[in-house]
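Dear Dr. V.,

Thank you for agreeing to look over these. As mentioned in my earlier message, I'm a first-year student in the group and I'm still getting used to reading structure tokens, so any feedback on how I've presented them would be very welcome. I ran two proteins. I've put each sequence directly above its structure. The first is here:
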Amino acid sequence: ALLKGGNIPLFSLESRTPLADCDLVGITLQSELTFTNALELLSAGHIPLHAADRKDGDPLVIAGGPCAFNPEPLHRFFDLFLLGDGEERWTEILTILRDVKDRGGGREDQLSAVKDLVGIYDPADFEPRYSDDGTVAEIIAKTERKKVEKALWADLEQSLPLHSFLVPFLQPIHDRVSVEAARGCTRGCRFCHAGMVYRPVRERSRDKVLEIAECGLQVTGYEALSLTALSIGDYGPLDGVLGDLMDRYERERVSISLPSMRIGGLTPEVTRQILRVRKTGFTIAPEAGTWRLRKVVNKDYSDDEILETARWVFGRGWSTVKLYFMIGLPTETEEDLDGLADLVRKLAALAPAKGQVTVNLSPFVPKAHTPFQWCTQDSEEVLRGKLDRLKGKLRGKKTQVRWGRTDQALLEAVLARGDRRVADVLETAWKSGALLDGWDEYFNWDIWMEAFRTCNLEPEWYACRPRDDKEIFPWDHISCGVTGEFLRREYEKGLKGEVTGDCREAGCRACGVCPPEIKARIPELRTPIPDGNTGAPGEEVVREPDRSLRRIRFVFHKVGDLRFLGHLETIRLFERAARRAGVPLAFSGGFHPKPRITFAQALPMGVEGLKEWAEFELTGSWSADLFRERMNACLPEGLEVLSAWKAPLEGQALNARVKFMEYMADFPAPIDDLGGKIEDLMGREAIPVERVKKGKTRTVDLKHFLRGMHADGNRAVRFTLSVSEVGASARPQEVLDALLDNDGILTDGIRVTRSGLGFSILGDRSAGRPGWSRVWD
């Protein structure tokens, strides 16, 4: 809204280049519920929404990611789609586009130069025609290419080198280095879109994973690492990789987490390694409530196996476990729902006294390129009835239940299996305000329903209508490598409750995806070591505090855009900069050790600081000059260490010595009678302000903290706030509100800066010891 209000185009992060000035814009489509976000990005970037309206000088707009495998609902908004592995095509595309541009070629020349590459889909090359009943009658290819195959990166060992990594200052959900250990999956879950489109399975070697992890941690300074794969429990070198990583990074307190572990994949060695730094969460995904229904989706795990896994996890010190289930799966009955509730009760009974199981219930969404692409989705009414039935049966003090919205699931199904006509609905809904549809607080189903009515389409026709084996799907000209014949066989086996074994155990299942060079070197499936073969599993470590050998105290400034970082984000930024700089941080003890970093006083968000104080405790004897040099090389613009020096390890904490703070405020326009306003404020017997925290209101008298104030012309003031013995003080916003009588709302455009801190001076603590500071600071 701010960008649009100021007519400012959306711009890139590093160079702040407007998107419309870029040669190419790429958007990853990870979820159907982000499709309106993609339209918003184009609009905010001042890029014509329709590919047909873009001219020379406009960027090429390319989509990728898993949702690109049914590109039809987005066909008019993107110039091209990149299907499959980006490593295989991306650098080639960039090289070709640059060469065409250097030769003076225009937009059409660029499109023509790359559109025939394997994995590149140009919607203009195909034209669907529809039958009277609304189904696709045929898809006409306008070129010799009748089907678009995905790009396939055969060897993960040849991955692109990692030179840089965007590290957000604020905390995203996945706030860690993620190292892809394997791509693809052979388990064959019939609902799983990723399990089909990312085939065949490929693994990185033990040495390659370690190399990427080392580089990732070095360039980011992250304190957490995740090994990712669709089925990490099947990754062959898992046990050895975990051991190597923890041997290398345990001292630096880098924790390791794993995604959802399949039943049977957890071993004592895996848990022992994870617990060496800190305990991370644990997730089990039964998907269905009964063994019968799990076999329908090709997850052949009995209730006893699931319960044994939970018993094992709770017995190793975990107190909380997340469970993931789907409702509305094909052939689901009331007995399956009751079985789900019964299974959850048994799992909750295994949790410790203060333990908990979190149950996540998601409506089943049939996806393209899966065996269940022929399935119907339960209607909203049916899904709500199933949710109500389960919520009534899942009440318990150890059970927390979360569920997905049925209307969101219906929309997701429409966009996942939609044809080109759905593009009208998408654009109409977006123009009416649909945005951030994956967030409950922003999703507005009424907007979408009105869009469907306007476009004369019914969402249930796309989501809830049964398909037969003769129907042409809107995506039939797109190939993920898995054949339609294999998907149909799996669908029919699923309806019968028949299980298809993993091809790495039971032999090739003839899905059609493996070229000969990959089929010859499919990695072996990890065989978990049985309990007892690796000794007793580890327990979460209670660590002793590090012995600090050096305290470095320093003054820094925090200015510019970084004034909008909160105190916790600032601490995290300094820690990660120190890790990148190689500073040997000392850590506290306990279950979750923290670096010993102390700030003199938290800087309010939005306030710049010219002379802020902080100190690090180190386990090595670094010089202050080296510390300043290394830190400044790793800090972003707006943060700089101005000076640093060695300080004694003993004595009163830095933050306990702050006695006053000096501020200055610059106003965007002259303030009438500013001196008189200051005189009036300082002459009051009391300056009461109300503070509300957690619903409770209390009154604070600013007079106790405001030590002085004077005008600097008619557009600035300087004032000093004292700090009490317990660290309390007034907030600069409260003082300015009282001065300007703003009733708690600061005037737009005021720039507030903390110009200095005042400390109590501690006397000689050296006790005659040579080399020790005679006077602190």
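The second protein is here, in the same arrangement:
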Amino acid sequence: MLQPLPIDGVLDELVQTLGRARSLVLEAPPGTGKTTRVPLALLRAGLAGSGEVWVLEPRRIAARMAARRVAEEMGEEVGRTVGYRMRFEQAGGPETRIRFVTEGILGRRLLEDPELHGVGAVVLDEVHERHLSGDLGLALLRRLQRAARPDLVLCAMSATLDAVALAAFMGAPVLRAGGQMHAVDIEHLPRAHDGPLEDAVRGALARLLEETPGDALVFLPGAAEIRRCLEACSPLARRHDAALLPLHGSLPPAEQDRAVRASDGRKIVLSTNVAESSLTIDGVTIVVDSGLHRLAAHAPWSGLPTLRVAPISRASATQRAGRAGRTRPGRWLRLYTRGDLQARREHDVPEVARADLGETALELCAAGVADLASFPWFEAPPPAAMEAARVLLGRLGAVRDGADRDGRAMLRYPLHPRLSRALVEAERRGVARAGAALVAVVGERGVAAGGPRFAGGRGPRRDGPSADALDALQSYREAEEAGFDARRLQGFGVDVGRARAAQRVAAQLGRLARAPRGGAGGPRSPSFEEAPAPGDAAEERALRIALLAGFPDRVGRLRRPTTSTGRTGLEVVFAGGGAALLDDDAGGWDSDLVVAIDAEERSEGRHTRARVRLASSVHVDWLLELFFDEVRDETRISWNAGAERVEAHRVLAWGDLVLEESAAGSGDAAAVAARLAEQALARGIERFVDPEAFERGRARVAFVRRHAPETGLADIDSACLRAALQELCLGCSSFAELREADLAGALRNRLDGGQARALAELAPETVTLPGGRRARVDYAQDPPSVSSRLQDFFGMSEGPRVARGRVALVLHLLAPNQRAVQVTTDLAGFWARHYPGIARELRRRYPRHPWPDDPRTATPPAATGRR
């Protein structure tokens, strides 16, 4: 007899509605039993016909545990009527009719079988989590149902998603179920906790374990916080005779099962959000919620994944609250205030809006979607992210006008396109087995657990942490040779659990690599017997080239900067811009070029830092071999500030990285002239021209522009000056040469014949006085002026004029001591009214100088060349 659950009351209506509409959105609170009861109801009602009922779960642990729970309710072992399937793990056979699968499995199945033969109904569980693979599965299923499979039954289930919007997308009615079985007492902190998270968790558990019987479940952001809480809470767990158990996605299945299954004694489970949905942990009556999760995202502009601790949404808080009260009344303590909860987002940002879309884009191209931007999502991803995915696939050689040969080969592996491209390249170079192991190790983010690292046949054992991906592979091989025996590997720094997980993945990938390729595409993979010997130079070279093939946009140069704290470390400066710290204290890289394999941007307090955990060395000839068309051979112009000269260099460049550089002679004359002119302008025009002469010329042009605009004379502005400088710089490469050139001449050369004549006629540089003296005209003021000895104007009835006689010059009439005795524009009036009195004084002071009574007819003194 099955234990009654709240969902049971709506199962008949659910079956009847799906029989008519073929689609349904079921909204039911956490703890109602929808994950286990709905699939069984669909099967027994015959809604799947002769096919299977597939249940899409967002997490592997949820798929495995839900399948076991349904099988137990049917009185069977898992693998008969009820089974599960996930990447590299499955249970089921010919009798299986209900199959719990992770969301990514559906996409792979649709690529192999676009009409999903043999599946009559699909239940999309916990769609509120909005995983990328779940959103993709929903969109593909809806597209299939509207085309080739109108008989396909779709049931989307959630506790917190906006059911109306989802129902509109699916063209489905909404059915709502009742609440959970037992009451949950929810508490909030009265004020925010500002200390370490593990202290808050320990304090909460100390009180709740005393007040409430049963097991405890603690929600934490990630594995690092779980490790710290394990250490902080160990004395408390011993005091209460409770098992302290971690639960997160990286644990082996056996350890996950131990945390989830019922036990005889008391237990405290420290979990990430894997326990948030679809799981009932028997015996839990106490839940402590940190209110945090580790949010994975992707930055299209940097190409790096990002990881940060962020507050959960109100919907996630509701989901977590549903973990208590499933089997008995419970207590719930949120380690944040009620006001903090109300200020949070209603829903978490879906993965489709923040994740790397590379794998999704490849699957869509393989599914025949020609225009990625127009694919009908429930909620479309940002255009920049989809474009970044398209560009990445192009760089990997996966997609050009659809999935090409490499793209089809990559799809054979259930991996991100980067890793599948690396494995395809390893297969092509005869190191498929080693490539499968390397990709598996990379997928597990290495197998190190601390302590010294292996270098195997590639060199002596290193004493510090190594970020070299091939060191990680060698560590894995050492663990494999030791039979993954924890005692034998003790002290070697290998995480046995991660190494065993890598072994399972490597074995499956190895089987896929052996499989013959369908169709006529691609060269034959070399046999395993043809592969280079493990650990030799040929194998290492092939594997490193394979990694480069999968991460071409992550190439960078190593440098060792000194930080503000005085601590030094290796840093990778990427070809596409930006830099990241390298988690490597061992050194020993055989090239200053590396490719970052495992990299991410992580929030650390107020700062975001990019870190590289695994990398591989790169050589220039490998870039030329794989990406010949992308390596640029170009001449670059640079400024040598010390020598004050422009220099040309020929470079091989990969993005912003210079791979090789050599002198290139004179370089392009126009580019050299432009750079020299740019530097000259930046340092000031006065360094290359007589500033007084330059300003006089500019004033003459301005005068003509004011008094004769019809000439069309252009102003000597910055653009004009830059153009003149560039002309002057042609044939020059240094300031020394530029100083020898004639900038004023270059400016004059920019005038046509008519403009040059107009400038000379309208604004002459000098005027000739009766005695032959040439006096310079000053155009700084309007009207312009001229200065000379009073005697130089003898013989003139009127003063000189410019602008073809339209403008009288201001005359500065000087005594022999060069001081002005009069400033006037009316020379005739001066002779008549002022000269007689001034002449008497000048005769007294300068008796040796002639001071005639009628200056208008007097002969001026001869010009002597002196002013």
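From my reading of the second output: The two ends are 124 Å apart (CA to CA). Confidence is low (pLDDT under 50) at residues 450-462, 515-529. Does that match how you would interpret it?

Kind regards,
E.
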